[in-house]
Amino acid sequence: MPPIDDPKGRPKVPFEKIESGDAVGPFEYELSEELIDRHLRATEQDRYPDPRRAPVSLLAADGVQLADRFFDISQSVHAGQRLEVVRIPVVGERLRVTGQAREKFVKRGRRYVVTDTVTTGAGGEPVARGTTTGVLVYAEGDTSGDASHPKPPPEAEPRVLERLGPLVRSMTLEKMRLYEPPDELSIHTDDEFARAAGLPAAIATGTQFMAYIFDLLYRTYGMDAVVGTELDVRIRLPVFAGDRVEASADLVSRAGGRLAHAVRARVERGDAIVGRAWVPAR
Q1: CB neighbours of 191 closer than 8 A, spacing ≥ 6?
Q2: Pairing state of beta strands 23-30 and 94-107?
Q3: Cβ(272)–Cβ(240) under 8 Å?
Q4: What count of Cα atoms within 13 Å lies in the side-chain half-sphere of residue 220?
Q5: The CATH number of 15-280 is which of 3.30.420.40, 3.10.129.10, 3.90.226.10, 3.55.50.30?
């Protein structure tokens, strides 16, 4: 399939030139009322009781937005995300995102890049730390010449102490477009563009339905547990407009001053997200 021209004229991600430790960015953005309003409507979240505080789920997209500023990722998909909330950002605050390539690998013919990020406030203090795993071009992929990436050993199923959720949301193309920057043209906003990249239709960005997990944890544990929340998830299935998404969390441990959960976001076809989440025990 011939490459699709980038609507923004950015260069392709130079996979062959990426080395561990390479700096990415930085870039800065403002937590404007418009940005926060679009995010809340796209993810169906309510504002926090103190309206000066911005939703921490917005920080999960910093790694993707960092790459988006410098490279053509219009055909890329999100494969995994880790985010640790260090403090809650405030409306009107200007945040700075810096990144560093951790590793790259090829799996089933697709090229993956893993990047660590730090988001800081105006004074340089950390707001969030994250790790983003992305697939450079969705349409690529076969089993020839596969350089396998080591898999972690399977874990025993933990005993469930309490079940949270489900929190149910319905995905729409309107919400998918609200989640992206205004007038964005990519596999996340346009069906025709997505089909040209090998998808049946536009797909939601992974951090959009990852926000449902953040919202479920906040609704369960409240504001006192937001700072220190950490998510580490893998995105297994695409989410399309019309999908019904059920976010849930199983509490599996109360050890070490943290509440550990197995989390997932399910659609009819199976798990769109699976992973772990930790919340401070207050």
Answers
A1: 173, 201, 202
A2: antiparallel
A3: no
A4: 24
A5: 3.10.129.10
pLDDT band at 17 (very low <50, low <70, confident <90, very high): confident
CA angle (111, 4, 206) in 5-degree steps: 55
pLDDT band, residue 228 (cuts 50/70/90) = very high
- Helices 33-43 and 206-221, axial angle in degrees (round to 10): 90
Q: How far apart are CA 114 and CA 134, in angstroms?
A: 7
Tell me, what's the pLDDT at 158? 80
Distance CA 83, CA 231 (A): 5
pLDDT level of residue 76 (50, 70, 90 thresholds): low
The alpha carbon of 4 is separated from its chain's Cα centroid by a whole number of angstroms, namely 24
Domain ranges of the chain: 15-280
Rounded to two decimals, what is the model's pTM? 0.86
Cα 147 to Cα 144: distance, rounded to the nearest angstrom: 9
The residues pairing with 88 across neighbouring beta strands, listed in sequence order, are none
Buried b (16+ CB within 10 A) or exposed e, 134-149: bbbbbebeeeeeeeee
Radius of gyration of the chain, Cα coordinates, nearest whole angstrom: 18
Place of tokens 């992973």: 275
Burial of 280 (0-12, 13-18, 19+ CB in 10 A): middle
Is the pLDDT at 71 greater than 70? The verdict is no
* H or E stretch at 211: helix 206-221
Phi-psi domain of 14 (left: phi exceeds 0; alpha: psi -120 through 50; beta: other) = beta
